[in-house]
Structure formats: C-alpha cells, structure tokens
Amino acid sequence: MNPPFHADHVGSLRRPPALIEAHTAHLQGKLSREALKELEDKAIDGAIAMQERVGLQAITDGELRRNNWRDRFFERVDGFSREKIASSFTFTDFSGKQYTGMPIPVVIGKLQWRENLTADDVDYLQERTKRTAKATLPSASANHFFSGDKSLAQSPYKDRKVFFADVCAIYRREIADLGRRGCTYLQIDEVPIAVLCDPANQGRVRERGEDPSELIDDYIAAINDVVRDRPAGMTICVHLCRGNQGKPVVVMIR
What we know:
TIM Barrel; alpha/beta; disordered C terminus; globular; two-stranded antiparallel sheet; single chain; 4-stranded parallel beta sheet
C-alpha cells in the first residue's frame, strides 16, 4: 500500500517519563549516549508494536529520540549559537497551563550541514517494520518564526530570503538522503503558519517589526523550495499544527 492512508498518526508520541529523565540526564552529562540509545530503542520498539497492533499502515518512531519536535535542525546544523534567547510566543495546553519564553538559538554564522536530521532514525525504523516507515521533519519556518528576524541580526544573513535559501538547501540534502535509504513517506510539521491564523500572534509579529502576511508567503515558499527535488516515489505531506501540548492526534484522510 502507498500513502496517503485513510488513517495516519501525525504528531509525536508521548515520551515515557523514564525516557524524558534519561534525555535530561544525557544533556547534563550524567548518562552516556549508548545508555540513552538503549532506552530509546526499547521505547521505539514498543511504539512500533503499538502502531502495528492498532492497524496503522504508516509507522513512525514517535520522534522518541528527540528532545522536542522542533530542535533537530538547530542541533545538527552548524551556524547557531550555544546561548539562546527567549521566544515571545506563549502556548497553552489542554489543561490551561501556559508555556512561555521557549529558548531559541540565534544565527551566528553561515549554515553548514553537520549530520543527518532524521535519516539515521529512519534506518532503525525500516529495519523493524514491514509497513511504510514515515520520516518526520520540522518545517523550515520553525528555524525562523519563534525568534524572527532578530535572530539573524548578528549573522551573515541580512536578508530573510537568503537565510531560507541555505535552510532549504540543507533540507533538500536530507530529503535526497532519505530517498537513497528507501524512505517513501515524509511528514513536514508546519506549526508557524497555523499559529499565524491567530490575530494575537499576528500582533506579536507586527510588534517585532515583521508583516505576518509576508511571513506566511515566505514560509509557503520555503515548503515549495524544500520539496522541489522530491525523489520519485516519495510522498510528502504537511502537518499543520497549532502547537498542541500533551494530546495525541489522529487525522483521517480521504
């Protein structure tokens, strides 16, 4: 069977508490990469079994190797600062709890690919399921929106479009690599465009000196630039998400 499928899981899976603690310990230098991977493998094997048990045809690793859905690009591409600035955006989860000031790195140098964003994760997934392994990537816009143009102020990129040209080139490299590894299904997680549907968020963008309508146009152009050389036989879908926190979602596709 080929994607898209009638039922498809589109978000991250909930991370087990033990895995969250292990990721934290690893970031603090208290747990080795090998020990963390062993826990990740166990959690992912369970996630694969669960998805197959409920009858899904597209299988993900639940993004269980990631600290969050967004930061893989920051973590695996050179050119970003170690120090971070606080985002001006606020998210509210289903319980009413608010999350503010999410830390975001700034751009300090020309972007350079250092290691795969998700291709190695897909190798593990394809070895463990006979169903369609689905890769997931944060959208190109996620590398700009939460801090905006001010994150480029000390970088070689004085123009947002020049910045996106380098961002999208790295994404195309990743997608080509996924194709060579046999991946036929990729999901791009696009939060900023959905978040900009909210007039309050449009106001925050204007307050920092940017035009929300222009941002949406730039973010759509980035998606098109990312997928323009899509490998033959690869299906790419875009998951529009408004930043749900802590609630799994299944989307029905017809």
